[in-house]
Structures are given as structure tokens and as C-alpha cells.
Amino acid sequence: MVGLSLDLAPAPARPARFLHSVPIWGVLFSVQIALLDPMAWTNRWHPGLIALVHSLLLGVIGNACLGALMQFLGAAAGSPVPGSPRLWNSLHTTYNLGVLLLVAGFKLGHEHLPLLTGSVLLISALGIAAGLMLAGLARGQGSTWLRFGLSLPLVLWPITALLGGMLVLRLAGIGSWSLPRMTDLHATLGVLGVFGLLLLAVGSVVLPMLLGTAPHSRRAPAWAIGLCTGGLALVLVLRKSDDPDGALAMACAIGLSAALWGLGRLYRRPHPRNAPLTWSWRFALVTLAVTSVLLWCSAVPIILALAIVLGVVLPTLVLSMLMEINSYLAWIAWHRAQPGHHTPSVHALVPDRFKWHWLSAQALSAGALLALAITPRLSFVIVAALLHTLAYVLLWRATRRPWQCLQRGTAQ
Fold first, then answer.
1. Distance (Å, rounded) from C-alpha 297 to C-alpha 304?
2. How far apart are the first and last CA of the chain?
3. How far is CA 162 from the centre of its chain?
4. Which CATH class name applies to 6-411?
5. For residues 142, 144, 147 and 149, what is the CA-based torsion angle, rounded to 10 degrees?
6. For 126-157, what is each residue's pLDDT tens digit?
């Protein structure tokens, strides 16, 4: 298991800016569910649905991943991220403004000016952020396989943003490339290449550290990352050669393999702990495995499978870890503010009941989203929007709690 190097961790306020933006974007995502025409759920090209997806993936998941990576690279991968606080504050503002403009452009019906401006801001912010993180990994002293596994998605993230920019240009009438094929490439790189590989690399460290799974061999994560990278490349080749069925089957195989690997690790735990996080991951991984099998057998339409993976699996995995990382940030801030004084344990900063409340709301909102995707009705829209709002309010409460403890503790 990789140990934590707290002296290499950044100033807690820097990644916390990204993490604390997540509940705000979550509420905006919930509002968009309420405003979206129910029939938009049957059309993957509907501008409102595209806005909703990017609000979730870039606003919620993107901010969570950027904040978590800033902390993870220094503390767990021995690769502190360079850059001044002012630079990272500017990147945070640029990134979120870019997401806001992009979502607004789609929501207004492919409005070109906000789409183009948002794309430029996003490409710039992600390019600089990824470059700084890759520089930190190149100079780092941590595990070679872990740094390599983290480098792959960081290279793919700006590329995915560039492909998104090309799609925006195509919508503006510039260029002649195929819109459906480019969209599939953009989505595949984003979901499998960026977020999938990030979760695999981070999960190989997080599972032993936070959930008490058995320590893995040094080569096991490297093999897993290599196989998933090869599978991703095969998906892209099959899609490029006009074999969508083969590409879909390979994507399902990657999802099923990753889910079974994670569930197997959770099943064999010599030191089980952190029940809320454990059940969050079990819920997400079982959902991913079942969805992969059903999609492989053509038992569910692609748009429904995407709604499950993007709306249920990814948020549950990422946001459950966000609460743990946020607690570590507050703990580090406490430790640095009062060196030599007694510091409470990380797990004492957020009671388990806060996490259980969030997981319950997350599971209910997932069911409502699934019902809405299967049967688009106004009643399901209202229920899904309310439950998602509740889940993100509870997430905000759980992420706010450690910093309240910090303020009370350092004031004494």
C-alpha cells in the first residue's frame, strides 16, 4: 500500500476550492433536470440533454477530480504539483467559467458565442492544469506504475477537450468531419480514457488505504491499467473501422472487468472499515456490472446505459471519495495550524451518519433518474430533481462539517 507523504501535500485551500465547487454544480445539475423537457431523454442530440451531461461531467465530476488529483499526486504519488496559489485560483475560475458558458450555450440551443468562448477557456484551463500535474509526475519520487497510470488520463483530458472544441466548431459550420463519429470518440475518451483510468489508478491506492483491502502486488495495478488502456485503444480502432457493435462489446467488457475487479477486492478484506464508503463502492460497482451485461446482451438501449453509468456509477464512486479526501484536507489544515497539538482522527471529523444520509439520498436519486430515463414523465422529472437536490445538499453538509470542526478547534 502506498503511504501518505503529508509534507508533499499542497496547501489544503488549493484543492478545496475545486472540491467545494462540486455541491454548487450538483444543485445546478438538479435545476437543469427540472427544466429539461421530459422527451429530451429519448434523444441523445437534444441540446438540453447535452447541457445536462456536461454540467454533471465537467461541473461535478471534473471539479472533484481536479481537486482530488492535486491532493493525491503530492500525498500519495510523491509528486507535488507545481504552480502558485494565484495561478491555481485563476485556473479554478477559468475552468468553471468555461463550463458555465459551455452549458449555457447548449441550453440556449447551440448558441455559438458562449460555446466557442467556453471551449477556449476549458481547453486552456485543462491544458495548463494537466501540464502542471504531468510536470509534477515527471519529477516525482513515488511509485513508477502509479505515476504512469495517472499520466495517461492527464494526457487524454486536454485531448478530449480539444475534440470537444472541434465539435463546437462543427456545430458553428466550420469543418467537415463526421459529427456522430467525432462525438463517439470524444465521449469514449472522456468516460473510459479520462475518468475510467483515473478511477482505476486512484482506486488501486484508495481501496487498501481507506477500505482495508489486501495489499496488491506491485505488478497487479500495472497489468490492470495496461489491459484497460489496450481495451480503450481497441474500442477506438473498432469504432474508426465502422464496427460499432465490436466497439460496444469491448466497452462493456472493460466496464464488467473493472467492476468485478473492484468487487473482488472489496470481498476479500483482511481489515474491513469505513462501511459507508464500502457500500457506496459496492452499489456503484454492482450497478456497473449489471449495466455492462445488459448492454452487452442488447437488453437495454445505449442511451439508458449511458444514463446509468454517467448519472449513477460515476457520481457515486467519485463523490463518496470526495468526502474522504475533503476530511483529509481539513485534517492537514488543522495539523499545520496547530503543530504539536492534539489533532482528532480524520474519521472523527465527519460522523458516519452524514455519509449514510448522503448515500441513501444518492441511491433514491439514482432510482428516480433511472425511472425518468425509462419513462419520461413530468412527475418523474420533479421527483428526480428534488432527490438530486437533496443528495447534493447532504453532500454539502458532509463536506462543510470538517471545516467547521477546524474553525472551532483552532479558535480554542
1. 14
2. 36
3. 19
4. mainly alpha
5. -150
6. 999 999 999 999 998 878 888 888 998 999 99
